[in-house]
C-alpha cells in the first residue's frame, strides 16, 4: 500500500569506502503527519553512510561510542497505559530518571543508579511511587547524568 511513503534516500557528507575509511553519521528522523503542527522527532541515532556499490559484511563496522548524552522523545505520546523513553549516555556513570507532574511534584523515580554507556530505554507505566495510577494530564520526564540534564513533556490519557 504505502511503503514507498516511509522510505527516503538522503545525502550525507561522505560515504564509507575502502579508500576513505568508515564515515560515521549522527542523524534523526522527523515524521510528518497530515496535520502540519503534529510531527514526531526520533531520538538521535547513528550509522554508517555507504555508497550504492559498497555493501558491508555483517559485523564489519564496530559500533562507535555515543558522542553525547541525550534524552529522546517518548513513544507513544500521548500514551495509555505505558510509554517508552529513549536516552543515551556517552560514558558510564550515575543516571537519574524522574517523572514530575505539571505542578513540579515528583510522581515517580524510574531509575537512580549506575548505568553503562550506550543507548537505553525506560518504561513508565503511569504508576506513581505509591503504586497508584496517575491521573490523565501532562507529565515531565527528567534525565540527569553527569553534567547533563534535559526534560521532556509527556501526556497521559486515561
Write the layout of secondary structure elements.
Elements: E1 24-27, E2 30-32, E3 39-41, E4 45-48, E5 70-75, E6 83-89, E7 93-101, E8 106-115, E9 118-124, E10 137-145, E11 148-156
Counting helices, strands and paired strands, the structural category is mainly beta
Order of helices and strands: EEEEEEEEEEE
The largest beta-sheet arranges its strands as: 8-7-10-11
| Share of β-strand residues | 35-45%
Shape: flat
The average pLDDT is: 79
Task: Determine Rg (CA atoms, Å).
Answer: 19 Å
Secondary structure: helix percent: under 10%
According to DSSP, the number of beta strands is 11
Q: Segments where pLDDT lies below 50 for 5+ residues?
A: none
Q: What is the number of helical segments per DSSP (H or I, 4+ residues)?
A: 0
Largest beta-sheet characterization? 4 strands, antiparallel
The N- to C-terminal Cα distance equals: 32 Å
Summarize the structure.
By secondary structure, the protein is mainly β. Helix content is about 0%, strand content about 45%. The protein starts with about 25 loop residues before the first strand and ends with a strand.
Textual characterization of the structure:
By secondary structure, the protein is mainly beta. It starts with 23 loop residues before the first strand and ends with a strand. It has a four-stranded antiparallel sheet with strand order 8-7-10-11, with no helix packed on it. A three-stranded antiparallel sheet has the order 5-6-9, with no helix packed on it. It has no helices and eleven strands. The protein has strands at residues 24-27, 30-32, 39-41, 45-48, 70-75, 83-89, 93-101, 106-115, 118-124, 137-145, 148-156. The model has no long low-confidence stretch (mean pLDDT 79).
